[in-house]
Amino acid sequence: MIRISGIIYQIALQVSTVLLLKIAIVGLILLFTWIISRILRSLVSKTKGKRSPSMSRQIRRLVTWITWFVGILIALSQVGLDLAILLILVALSAIVLAIALRHVLSNLVSYGVIKSYEPFKLGDWVQVGKFFGRVVDITWADTVLMTPDNETVYVPNSKITQNIVINKTTPGGTRIAISIVISRALDLSEVEKTLLEIGIELKEELIPEFVPEVRITNLNTQSVRLALLLRINNPARGKLIASKVRKRAKERLDEIQQKAAGTLSHLE
User: Fold this and answer.
1) What are the residues facing 216 on neighbouring strands?
2) Contact, 225 vs 181, CB < 8 A?
3) What digits encode the pLDDT tens for the residues 168-212?
């Protein structure tokens, strides 16, 4: 009985020694993995950080994931797991996850593209398909827009990379053309002068040193269609500015028409 107990003790001691040795090896592998990961992240920051901070962050994250993935595989192989079988299981799991989470992964990849190339930034006014608004947040899943009507729109990042994106926040402002239809009986030069005056009155809404323009866009036997061209600072105020222009134009053109009718009556 004592001999059996001694054998069991020796086996347990050997197993414990082997187990502790394997744990120590796994710990060293994970430590070296952490050190290599830090070194690689530092190298990426030095080579890409100054040129493109966003791209540098994405590459550092990818390098970290790959380094830890390889390190964990090596550590598990030291425990006694067959590396080939482990790789097959990981590959199969990755395929299943990729199919199940394809939309999530698509948004995640698109988020990396957006952050790397930066077609817009927070605060910019952008047009994505039929949606127009100011960018208030960019997450890994979607880009959040605030419309001029204070509505929050969540656009999936994959839709942004698949659609044409128009960034309307430019140093030169956003050009708007406000159409006005007048009768051919009115004096065209006087109407043009009136529209230019209205445009100048709205100079607080315009980019500095911009001079409003008036162009004829259509002409027929009864009417003339004019366009007042303005370059505004805030694209979200385009409709409001157009409304102000049309309201003032209506009031002043009515005055011009009344004066013309009074002059004609006086001549008769």
Assistant:
1) 226
2) yes
3) 877 777 888 899 898 888 888 888 999 999 999 988 888 888 889
CATH of 119-167, one of 3.40.50.2000, 3.30.70.260, 3.40.50.10300, 2.30.30.60: 2.30.30.60
In CATH, what is the architecture of 174-267? Answer: 2-Layer Sandwich (3.30)
| Residue among 212, 217, 173, 171 at smallest CA distance from 195 | 212
Whether this model's pTM surpasses 0.85: no
Q: How far apart are CA 72 and CA 160, in angstroms?
A: 35
Both tokens assigned to 188: 């065209």
The helix (H) or strand (E) run that includes residue 224 is strand 223-232
Phi, psi of 225 (to 5 degrees): -100, 120
How many other C-beta atoms can be found within 10 angstroms of the C-beta atom of residue 5? 9
